[in-house]
Specification:
130 residues, mainly alpha, Globin-like, 7 helices, globular
Length: 130
């Protein structure tokens, strides 16, 4: 196994700097999305910080989220919000746009989005008609 084969996604992305840039590119897109913006507070700063910590950990970096907030339990933390397939797709679309904006290579971007799809669709708790 080569050295690059042992790298985490976090390292392949560019570490903390890239994860921070990604999250900061992502949330303005969320705030402008009519499906997603109602789910988020107007003071998005704390959400950005939590997402930075979570994605750092999710992609194999330091366990910032767990160290600060305990076990992620992300499905449970999202149950209070009506998450539909359409909203999960919108979230993934905003993330994809942010990945392009920060310059992640297409192959890495595709891999990261595939990994995030599992979580995004796992959070669905509301059908479109509700």
């Amino acid at each position: 196994m080569s050295e690059s084969d042992r790298s985490t996604l976090y390292e392949l992305m560019g570490g903390a700097e890239t994860v921070r840039r990604l999250v900061e590119a992502f949330y303005p897109k969320v705030q402008q999305n009519p499906l997603l913006s109602p789910l988020f507070p107007s003071d998005i700063g704390p959400v950005i910080d939590k997402q930075f910590m979570f994605l750092s950990q999710f992609f194999g970096g330091p366990t910032l989220y767990s160290d600060t907030h305990g076990h992620p339990m992300m499905r449970g933390r999202h149950m209070a919000f009506p998450i539909t397939v359409e909203r999960a797709d919108a979230w993934l679309s905003c993330m994809s746009e942010a990945m392009v904006e920060v310059g992640l290579p297409a192959d890495l971007r595709d891999f990261l989005l595939e990994r995030l799809k599992g979580s995004a669709y796992h959070f669905i708790n509301t059908s479109e008609g509700e």
